[in-house]
Amino acid sequence: MIVLTGAYGNIGDAVIRRRVLNWVRDLGEIHAYVGNAPGGWIEQMGFEPDDRVYSAASSFSWMKLVFAPRRPKALVFDPGEISLARNSIRSELLTLALTFLVRMRGGVVVRPPRGISQSSGLGLFVHRLGARFAKINLWRTQRSFDIVGDGSVVPDTAFQEPFVPGLPWDQRRTLVISMRGKRKFPSDAWFSSMDLLAQDHGYCVVVLSQVREDEERSREIAERLKGRHLEWGSRSDLDHERLVRGVYSESAVVISDRLHVLVLAAVAGCIPIEVSDSPRTKVSEHFAQIGVHNMVIDSAIHSAEDIVRRAKDACRQRSRTQRALSVARELLDIEEMRIKGAIDKTALVASASDVG
Fold first, then answer.
1. pLDDT at residue 347 in the model
2. Looking at residues 40-51, what average pLDDT do you find?
3. What is the pTM of this model?
4. Distance (Å, rounded) from C-alpha 229 to C-alpha 217?
5. Which of 110, 143, 236, 290 could bond to 76 as cystine, CB 3.0-4.6 Å?
């Protein structure tokens, strides 16, 4: 049993869920709950013909699997950002109940790398109970681990994505920009720094989105910078993902305030940098977790010239960043093997018990 719901139309969310699905792909029959996912999301998951996929309409059938005569080997939740605010209490209680039932029947419960965006006292209390019942709890930042106090800290799941060779570094001449649409429009200083960075290095500017809701902001930025807008349009989510990742493999620097834009760009050989007005801590926390620092720049307090200088500093640490990515991938490989080992061991015990 695996949960693969997320922010539909968000390439990063799809990538990390697909990776977790691959962790358990060869361990038995897949029963995946996808909620109200559209066809594009389901295509991105890469399901195989024998996989059983459950929508919101068939959620009860999926949950009943915990009582099936053939007990579930494991219950694997979705990775990514979670909220423990008051409006999440109902889902947290359901998660706790499923966790308890699967564990009581001898199954393994896995919580892949997660981060907490907000929390309430009651939500945190229920989540802590579920964490204690689960077999494996992984957190993608130290702060999230400190809030719950149970489990271990590992890199974000996307850091396990394989390296993409792409163009040699000295042939890369593209500056990619991808900014959130729901935040304040970038300042004049931000635009000046982008212009100066492109001019200094002779970069052509490409603006794109990894999240559909950012499309309008990408169009606005492309118009202001006179760059190329790689429009999502009618392209499927999977086709757009392939196109975007192809662009990264030919680009030198990627500027974004979205974590998974920067991670997927980094594994394609780009220099990942956040330049934004009063940046939040999400990007810096997750990259610091793998040992990459000084790649977030606050355009609200630095001049365009200073931003370009700091961006050049980030470029000079490219080799160190690539080494950190390799270590992060190895750590996630170890966690994947630990999860597989725990599920295999439980399956053997359950099989012996059933025979007895």
1. 54
2. 96
3. 0.94
4. 10
5. 110
Look up residue 176 and give its two tokens.
């990619």
List the one residue out of 68, 92, 57 whose CA is nearest residue 1: 68
Contact 151, 111 (CB under 8 A): yes
User: Helices marked H in the chain — which ranges?
Assistant: 11-23, 39-45, 59-63, 89-104, 121-133, 142-148, 188-201, 215-225, 237-248, 259-266, 282-288, 304-316, 318-355
Question: Which residues fall within 8 angstroms of residue 251, CB to CB, at 6 or more apart?
Answer: 172, 174, 175, 176, 206, 265, 268, 270
DSSP characters for 40-91?
A: HHHHHHT--TT-EEEEGGGHHHHHGGGGSSS--SEEE---EEEEESGGGHHH
108-163 confidence digits (pLDDT tens): 999 999 999 888 899 999 999 999 999 899 999 999 999 998 899 999 999 999 99
> Is the pLDDT reported for residue 345 higher than 90?
no
Contact 272, 296 (CB under 8 A): no
Rounded CA-CA distance 194/273 in Å is 12
**Residue from 8, 343, 340, 324 nearest 156 by CA:** 324
Quote the pLDDT of residue 42. 96
Q: What is the CA radius of gyration of the chain?
A: 21
- Contact between 206 and 282 (Cβ < 8 Å): no
Q: What are phi and psi of 208, to 5 degrees?
A: -145, 170
Q: Say if CB 4 and CB 36 are below 8 A apart.
A: no
CA distance 16 to 112: 10
Q: Which residues contact 84 (CB under 8 A, 6 or more apart)?
A: 92, 116, 118, 119, 120, 123, 124, 127
Q: What is the pLDDT of residues 99-110, one digit of tens each?
A: 999 999 999 999
Distance CA 45, CA 33 (A): 12
Asked if residue 331 has pLDDT above 50, the reply is yes
Q: Tell me which amino acid residue 177 is.
A: I
Helix (H) or strand (E) holding 297: strand 296-298
